[in-house]
Amino acid sequence: MFKGSIVAIATPFKNGAVDEAKLRELVEFQIRSGTNAIVPCGTTGESPTLSTEEHERVIKVCIEAARKRVPIIAGTGSNSTAEAVALTKHATKFGADGALIVSPYYNKPTQKGLYLHFKEIADNTDIPIILYNIAGRTAVNIEPETIAKLANDCKNIIGVKEASGSLEQMQLIKLGCPKNFILLSGDDTLTLPILGIGGVGVISVIANIIPKQVVAVIKAFNEGDIKKAQELHYKILPLAKAMFIETNPIPLKTAMGLMELCSDEVRLPLCSMKEENKAKLISAMKDFGLLKEKVTA
Q1: What is the structure's pLDDT at 295?
Q2: How many Å is the Cα radius of gyration of the chain?
């Protein structure tokens, strides 16, 4: 169920509030473009600055808009175990198909603490859970041994979104976990290499603006057309790198604004791009063919 191109959907804002009408449009855009699943309230969705009420509402709106046409994997992580349990229960009640749960940030738990955190969530919910490992955001890496122990001990922990950047670590996860444990790329620049070591897809930032192309890379790989997958991957690569000129989702929201997909509004402490970085982003978008030449920073 959870494979292929999965978009970590941005949360559109309008004058400081969640723009629900635009969010529904974005869900429709993704489904029309062939995206395989949608993740609301991830890092790209600016979940840390959503109130609890907004967080639950964004998930509910995405579920309603999708109408079971694609799975909705709700971002329900927190650095408070009790809050993560509560958010996951609410997502389950609303009809989410799965939950993406980031490792606790700021607390800096030990590996034992990480294990107990995720096990507590799994023990208190029935929904399929995908772990989200991104030490660059959380300060703690979920070690392969910890992931393997969770995968073997908790039947509803079914996969991991890996954004450690370490292909060696991902291979160790594949070795230590059950054969049906899902490995998903958490980095658009590594999707193709991760497919090559047994990954089944990506939870993507760049699919917000080029969903058809991300779908095409995975489709070509799965059909055995490695040359075509490589060509598509290398075409996307410069644009994917441009999405991280500044902290995600600042460049993404800027790009979405330029493409008139939604407002470029982000919430503090995120802010608008430096002009020199925006110029680099615009250049990458033009090179990809997303913008006309007249657009300037």
Answers
A1: 60
A2: 18
H or E, element range at 203? strand 201-204
For residues 45 and 65, give the distance between their C-alpha atoms in angstroms, rounded to a whole number. 16
For position 253, what pLDDT does the model report?
Answer: 98
> Do 202 and 42 form a contact (C-beta atoms < 8 A)?
no
Beta-carbon neighbour count of residue 58 at 10 Å? 24
Angle CA(121)–CA(12)–CA(269) in degrees, nearest 5? 75
Contact in structure between 189 and 240 (CB atoms under 8 Å): yes
Residue 179 among the catalytic residues? no
DSSP class of residue 110 equals -
Strand-pairing partners, residue 8, are 39
How much is the pTM? 0.96
Which residue stretches of the chain have pLDDT < 70?
293-297
Determine how many CB atoms are found less than 10 A away from the CB of residue 168: 10
Which residue out of 149, 161, 253, 280 is catalytically annotated?
A: 161
From the list 115, 132, 149, 253, the catalytic residue is: 132
Backbone angles phi, psi at 82, to 5 degrees: -60, -40
> Does domain 4-223 correspond to CATH entry 1.10.20.10?
no
Q: Which amino acid belongs to residue 155?
A: K
**pLDDT at residue 292 in the model:** 73
Q: What are the phi and psi torsion angles at 122 (to 5°)? A: -65, -40
Task: Give yes or no: 115 in active site.
Answer: no
